[in-house]
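Q: How would the structure tokens look for this protein?
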Amino acid sequence: MRERERARRERSRAESLSLALSSNLRRIPPPPIILLRSPKSSSPSPSQPSNQTLVHSTLEHCDDVDFTFIVFFNLKEHTVYVRKRPYLRTFLERVAEMFEAVVFTASQSIYAEQLLDILDPDGKLISRQVYRESCIFSDGSYTKDLTLSGVDLAKVAIIDISPQVFRLQVNNGIPIKSWFDDSSDCALISLLPFIETLVDADDVRPIIAKTFGNQA
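A: Here is the predicted structure in token form.
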């Protein structure tokens, strides 16, 4: 935990929190960077109920949740109730073996950092976090500009429930359906075989475009 806090202090102010996966830089040549969407709130409040790629969080009291935590915003205390998407741990562990995981979200750090500390307390699965400050706000929604990652876009992919967030680099985007509380959901684990095909790709964009029918 101390190493993670030290890393946070050293990060540039330009970084903002979100869940992403990036390539393991120790590999030569480096495999692609995979960016995964973390919990996001579209309002200024860090705890607005939301459906997510990896978890579902809400301010409404729930008994059937995996965990809760407290956030302070606008001088008020809020309890956030969180459900983890099925196979989340297995998914993150497998992806972390192939890529460097980076969280890229439109959430505010006051909320997202606490959530990620619970999901990955030892900092072994998520290597870096990018927050709302690195998103572009226009027409009432946030867009994630992948060029801010500073990495060759041929080696970058982002997984998100909303194509709007990767509209600037559509052929880097891997869509996934929204999730609320379906215990039979297997979208994360089902995506792993495709993600594995990106590891040694010279350019992930043609592969993603062909698979998901994206158009630049």
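Helices lie at 2-10, 88-98, 109-119, 187-197, 204-212.

The two ends are 41 Å apart (CA to CA).

Upvote if useful.
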